[in-house]
Amino acid sequence: MARVYLYDTTLRDGTQRRGLSLSLEDKLQIAQLLDDYGMDFIEGGWPASNPKDTAFFERTRGQFQTAQVAAFGSTRRKGILVDEDASLRSILELEVPVATLFGKASVFQVEQILETDVTENLRMVEESVRFLVEHGVTVIFDAEHYFDGYRAAPDYALAVLSAAEAGGASWLVLCDTNGGGLPIDIRNGVEAAKTVSRLPLGIHAHNDAGLAVANSLEAVAAGATMVQGTINGYGERCGNANLCTVWPNLVWKMGFEAGRVERLKDLTRLSRTVSEIANLAADDGAPYVGENAFAHKGGVHAGAVRKHPEAYEHIDPAQVGQTRRILVSELSGRSNLLYHFDSLLNAEQIQALVEQVKQLEADGYQFEDADSSMRLMVERSLHHVPAYYGVDRFHVSVTHDSTSICEATVRILVGGARFVEVGEGAGPVHALDEAMRKALTQVYPQVRDLHLTDYKVRVLNGRDATGAAVRVWIRSEYHNRVIQTVGVSRNILVASWQALVDAIDFLLWSEEAPSRHQEAVESQA
Amino acid sequence: MARVYLYDTTLRDGTQRRGLSLSLEDKLQIAQLLDDYGMDFIEGGWPASNPKDTAFFERTRGQFQTAQVAAFGSTRRKGILVDEDASLRSILELEVPVATLFGKASVFQVEQILETDVTENLRMVEESVRFLVEHGVTVIFDAEHYFDGYRAAPDYALAVLSAAEAGGASWLVLCDTNGGGLPIDIRNGVEAAKTVSRLPLGIHAHNDAGLAVANSLEAVAAGATMVQGTINGYGERCGNANLCTVWPNLVWKMGFEAGRVERLKDLTRLSRTVSEIANLAADDGAPYVGENAFAHKGGVHAGAVRKHPEAYEHIDPAQVGQTRRILVSELSGRSNLLYHFDSLLNAEQIQALVEQVKQLEADGYQFEDADSSMRLMVERSLHHVPAYYGVDRFHVSVTHDSTSICEATVRILVGGARFVEVGEGAGPVHALDEAMRKALTQVYPQVRDLHLTDYKVRVLNGRDATGAAVRVWIRSEYHNRVIQTVGVSRNILVASWQALVDAIDFLLWSEEAPSRHQEAVESQA
């Protein structure tokens, strides 16, 4: 089976999407996932344009099993010697195994944008590639604007490819930089490239005409063996080719080997995790991984799917870590709950839980990422969770003039005792968290070791603006165990409070019986 | 120039999308738009499955200039006489000029889902088509599962087409019902259909493999002359072929005539209006019509677009009613700022601004979606923005016991006067917003017409949990103008406060001089 190499540029081209910016920690977390899923190349960033990317290359050096980390950069500037080019030199300093250099493959771009002549551009390409290759770096050459350039002046576009090959490039990647090409343009361009070079070819497609996936597949059908793309299709303007679509298409529809094929069954998780890290809403309509991808609404469809799933499904949803959803059906969600709680609940209790979850989801709760809140809800319904403490009231006060002061007071009852404590914080939620801890650690010292490690806020129904409901999600850790909880309210402090209380309750409940540690962990798996 | 007929099924297949339901008034409004844009066919609904659709056909009878309204229905049930079929009779009662009948073109579907034999299915197709045609209805035959059926048993799929033709169908529409086909499958299927029939062919593609647009274009390239699709690609599961992408591709990339071509320049409005009516968030990444479709973030791109827009744009944004957006971010540097402020600032000031933006972004600000805050920053640095008011202090108090009470007080100075006001709200930000408005409208009545329309919170460095900094982004509208502002603080109320104040200041500043309306709008373009 022929192999197609997957080249992920989520961390570089992906971040060109409007509204997407990633911290160093975000990038490291995504890169780890990409390696785990068997991406062949991870483009880490463009050191010349973004100095903080240097840290990324340092932190990932030698860390990955499968993936090679590539630095991105351009050919040398016009009219200088190649070793005077600060950007190329900065790539060498990173000690990366692979660099992806982009150069112009279009006469229009060379003359009008670079404002140099076509011969100098050929020198820029060849000399830049050679400079890195001679210093031991494997070079992938991205021929920018190749397809537009080829249409306007085919000989020159091909001459640029030859210059990169002469410099010692290992790959020639043909770019539809403006994203306006049709599959036929892609085929013509790839076939022409094969007439001038025997180097392996890659495709870099953008989605401005809604064809990035199709164009990537067409290039592969025409002989390319590398696809550059991003998770969820993030990227400049309308985005890059979506690897969450390209990858399963290559493997299941076209019979290629690509990535770590056995991880495709968790493709949905890859997509969702990256969108969570990017703090962008997931695209419900996305092929394979979208919330709707296997959601059947039409009565005819739903009926048929019950008999024979393949009647209206092009693949088995489990192949990408999805589940079938039959909409407008009281059964939706049931099987998931059954899966987790079959041993705890009887049929009637499961049904009651389905109803409760439905109502809470309609109110804005979401339990996919809040297993601990889900588990608590089930255990509370079985009266397994005692009232460890009662909260009489809390009060938060923020005063802002030349400085700001945040104070929170809580009144908590445990047994017959009453604890009134005050906390200060950088913001109101912080103050509330401090006050709770001060009160509760007096009775439950284990609360001291509960650390909040992530906190997210999502505004529901944004159109209600500052009066809208918000969902707060909190991730806590306790001795390496993860506790994820959720709260919803029109008051952000109340929503945060609910999620905090759930985290503490879950900790106390799971600590009560040692066996629950493992149980709790498994229910989250 | 050859014509491709556009067949819109937003009102039928579109509503199979999860979360999409349309009232009769919604449908009428969308149909009016579709006619205005020159769609050739509007599929109004499936009367047999949805009795309220009858009213739609009554209300639209004879109403449209271009579009023909089509009723959707299936071939007769197995084992009955055709004139006993209630569903077919209900189509006749509608007195529609066109009916679209779907029938199975796959042996698997006939035997396993319909549970009948292949010969009976051929009779069902032929008799049902003939029944309507003999009563004066033009019939478009949708060959359901045609491509899957053709792959498994080509002769039978083609026999179904012949049966429809024998019955008197005017069109044969080949359906990739499960959406899993590749362009090559589509080409093979269309070419095979041409060998058995000279009727005009149509394509109905779904997007489960991310290829609905490509497959539609491939079918047209192979000879189909009708494309069925929906506005914004709404539809069952991953949706149908998106007409907002297919249409401009057909006209501008492939040279066909389709729809009312002069209305393409308002394509973005069509897309946005339909998503407003459907009450679904617009897809920012959508080709041609998405908010990001002509948004340039990379510094290299922005610099080049400033010289020659076509450097990174596959079409002129005005062709689809769009405007170019140059985003300001840490990735962009000088060129993006130059693009906006070239006429206002000298080189030294631009450089200072670049440094300031970099520092603010390091602190967590993000300006790419907050043009108004960006503009204010520039104008403030030029001392163009007076202190319209001073905020002495604000105080927010939240008490939560059996209920929650949120109150905010503000002390504001305008000239010599001092305004102390209190606001109540569902949450603390809401209360603060109310208090500010109460105080300021006494001096600046225009603040009353400033409406907050969206509010987002992003927790920065989530790992600092409840002590982390947050970025608040607010979108406001003032008489159809959009004002987008941002605030950052470790205290969510302070961050919200900053964004609120910026929105108000921007409004007051741009209202001061009438010329600034246009300027402000342009700087956001």
UniProtKB/TrEMBL annotation, chains A, B:
Entry-linked CDD domains: DRE_TIM_LeuA3
Catalytic activity, as annotated: pyruvate + acetyl-CoA + H2O = (3R)-citramalate + CoA + H(+)
EC number: 2.3.3.21
Pathway where this protein functions: Amino-acid biosynthesis; L-isoleucine biosynthesis; 2-oxobutanoate from pyruvate: step 1/3
Annotated GO MF terms: (R)-citramalate synthase activity; 2-isopropylmalate synthase activity
Domain of life (superkingdom): Bacteria
UniProt keyword list: Amino-acid biosynthesis, Branched-chain amino acid biosynthesis, Isoleucine biosynthesis, Transferase
Alphabetized SUPFAM superfamilies for the sequence: 2-isopropylmalate synthase LeuA, allosteric (dimerisation) domain, Aldolase
Cited InterPro entries: 2-isopropylmalate_synth_dimer (IPR013709), AIPM/Hcit_synth_CS (IPR002034), Aldolase_TIM (IPR013785), Citramal_synthase (IPR005675), LeuA/HCS_post-cat (IPR054691), LeuA_allosteric_dom_sf (IPR036230), PYR_CT (IPR000891)
Domain (Pyruvate carboxyltransferase): residue spans on this chain: 4-271
PANTHER family documented for this protein: (R)-CITRAMALATE SYNTHASE (PTHR43538:SF1), ALPHA-IPM SYNTHASE/HOMOCITRATE SYNTHASE (PTHR43538)
The name this protein goes by in its record: Citramalate synthase
Species per Swiss-Prot/TrEMBL record: Sulfobacillus harzensis
Biological classification of the source: Bacteria, Bacillati, Bacillota, Clostridia, Eubacteriales
